[in-house]
Amino acid sequence: MELPLDEEDGTFTSISLADDSEYRSRKRSSKVERAPATMMNADMDAVEAENQVELEEKTRLINQVLELQHTLEDLSARVDAVKEENLKLKSENQVLGQYIENLMSASSVFQTTDTKSKRNSTADLLVDVS
């Protein structure tokens, strides 16, 4: 800052204190103005960090939901496959059961016999032998 030169005697004149206080006042006000800006930047950084954490959490939850949906789809497909296999096996069991019944009815070993007639023939045999 240049001091004004007094042209009459060639000496420097003093500057009033009012000018100096005005300069200091402007300097302080610029610091005060910068302080809220710095605080606002810090607040904005905190908000941005919080938003980033929320965004990461949302992304994690979305990925987890998608994974669970795929797992559910896989399980549902597996249940459908097991149901189809169950129906197929039931049908095969019915066919085999019918086949076994037909074999048993065709075989003389498995045919039902009348117990009274069997006793009479056994008694006849015993009588004849004596």
Could you describe the 3D structure shown?
This protein is mainly alpha-helical and 130 residues long. Helices cover 81% and strands 0% of the residues. It is built from 2 helices and no strands. The longest helix has 90 residues, at 17-106. Mean pLDDT is 75; it is low at 125-130. It is a peripheral membrane protein. Residues 39-92 form a coiled coil. Its main location: cytoplasm. This is Short coiled-coil protein. Belongs to the SCOC family.
Order of helices and strands: HH
Total strand count, please? 0
Low-confidence sequence ranges: 125-130
Quaternary structure classification: single chain
- Level of helix content? over 70%
In terms of structural class, how would the helical and strand content be classed? mainly alpha
- The fraction of residues in strands falls at under 5%
Q: What is the end-to-end distance?
A: 156 Å
Largest sheet: none
The helix tally amounts to: 2
As a whole number of angstroms, the C-alpha radius of gyration is 54 Å
What is the mean pLDDT? 75
Bulk shape: rod-shaped
